[in-house]
Amino acid sequence: MGxxxxxxxxxxxxxxxxxxxETEANHITFLGPSGSGKTTVMRAIAEEIFDKVPGALIIVxxxxxxxxxxxxxxxxxxxxxxxxxxxxxKENFQDLLxxxxxxxxxxxxxxxxxxxxxxxxxxxxxxxxxxxxxxxSILSWHGLKPKSFPVxxxxxxxxxxxxxxxxxxxxxxxxxxxxxxxxxxxxISRLAQINRNxxxxxxxxxxxxxxxKRDPDELERFGKEWEKKYRPNSNxxxxxxxxxxxxxxxxxxxxxxxxxxxxxxELSTDVINVIDFSANSELTPAEEAWIFKHLVMYIVSKFVxxxxxxxxxxxDEVQNxxxxxxxxxxxxxxxxxxxxxxxxxxxxxxYMYGLPAFLVYGAAHxxxxxxxxxxxxxxxxRKVIRDFHRIRNPKVKSFTEYKNVKPWLKGRGxxxxxxxxxxxxYFRPPQSL
Length: 433
Description:
Layout: E1 2-10, E2 15-21, E3 28-31, H1 38-52, E4 57-62, H2 67-84, H3 86-92, H4 94-105, H5 138-141, E5 151-155, H6 162-169, E6 172-175, E7 178-179, H7 185-192, H8 199-210, H9 216-230, H10 239-253, E8 257-258, E9 272-276, H11 285-304, E10 311-315, H12 318-321, H13 325-338, E11 343-349, H14 357-360, E12 365-369, H15 375-384, H16 399-409, E13 412-417, E14 421-427
Parallel strand pairs: 3-11, 3-12, 4-9, 4-10, 5-6, 5-9, 7-8, 10-11
Antiparallel strand pairs: 1-2, 1-14, 12-13, 13-14
Helix pairs in contact: 2-3, 8-9, 8-10, 9-10, 11-13
């Protein structure tokens, strides 16, 4: 069993598809410098999967939002009003008009759609030609139309109102929670800056990890019992107890924690699930890596081993997660557990050199967006892609040539099918913004 998804047209303008097979790991790694359109291509792949693989669990790891998207929507609205008139706009673009009025009244809290704003149709691509002087738009050239997709966006410690995030992305947004019982001492020690070498640090570790009292109320009781046992005649709380109580207060006040509900319960096969690691969420890089690891463990235990559900992880800027051991371990586990269970990793990175071998050598397909920006990556890809000689990095001899070539490269590049056959590719554009 498998499915073919459309990825774009080759240099002869022939449509190209890749086969996603249930019995194989269909990992795809995209390489491209910042601004090359790498995230745009990955968004288009996510849309194809949502449409072509019914019942799939699609999880997108988003790294940032893009204020320019709101401007693009406003520019499109102004253009279509000029061409078709205000009555046409009111009849056909009421949602966009509502959003325009929101931005006009409050452009500070709003106006920050995510890189994966699946909830908005990509109307601007109906006005952008794929080639100079082309009468087609980018979407119509590929036989596509603007479209919105159902999305659930999970935000952690929201830095702005959830309703503003929903309006910016035209989707459902929820506050991501982590259960106390799921986090280990390492997580809370980083959060509360606990010194492991102090008495209070050792007491908390014993309570939290060894005796599994993973709740601030239970931890507080444990601290008070410790105080009675080791300082029975004292009428003044010790510094150890005060430090424990301070940690308990911090855990209670942190909006990321919950006693019962975990963000994994929000995941659904009826929507595209976006894990929002952009500036909408107040997270440290280490916390992002831990959340990703927790997510992977949930998917492996609940979906991979006990359900016949195809799972697709779409991870933007994957090198960020790999900077932390939790992220590296999670990706490795995802690769091993999902190899024959229809679990797929579709990742994007600005550089390949230094990535784990399974993302490079183990990838079923490799896409190069724009150009190869690093000499180290070029040497690596020469070893990995059998017909690397087909790939031609642009060479410019003047600043004028550079200015002309750079926009032409966006959303275009090369795609290596099973690292055996490589073609110049005009990648499928996203139907969403």
